[in-house]
Amino acid sequence: MAQMLAFPPPATRPELCHLSVTQTPAKEKAKEGETVVLKCHFDGPQCPSLSELMVRWYKEDEKGQMDLLENNVTILPNNCRVFMSGDLSQGDVSLVILNVTTSDHGIYFCAITLPDGKVVTGDGTKLQTPFLDIFFFQTNSSHYSIRNYKCHK
Q1: Domains, the chain, with CATH or none
Q2: Taking Cα atoms as reference points, which of 37, 18, 36, 24 lies closest to residue 124?
Q3: Is pTM, for the whole model, over 0.85?
Q4: Is the keyword Disulfide bond assigned to this protein (predicted)?
Q5: How far is residue 17 CA from its own chain's centroid?
């Protein structure tokens, strides 16, 4: 008795979903009070339904890692400054940060979870938020001068 293995025809075999995630730019600068858009785009030509993918944004800084957005929804309590923009079905899952503060500095990562559980993460975008240091120094005319100082760690 011969054994036969049945395989579906090549046209009906499920294709693996290969996804690429691109974050641009690698570095972004924003001053306090500004709005910044951290761009993240993914491309998955073999993925049947891009709208079924899950998006997660997280930030890494000197305090560690902090989740900002999970399952396509902002998870920060009482925070409407950070949200996803763009069109998921078009592969645009950019992150918007309104009213930037100095505490927003860090490296932001966009991660996409495929239906099979595989996670594909972008290379990250480093957000630099220069702060205002005020130096007072007296001149001969008794006027004071204020200078902006950017602190780079």
Answers
A1: 20-128 (2.60.40.10)
A2: 24
A3: no
A4: yes
A5: 21
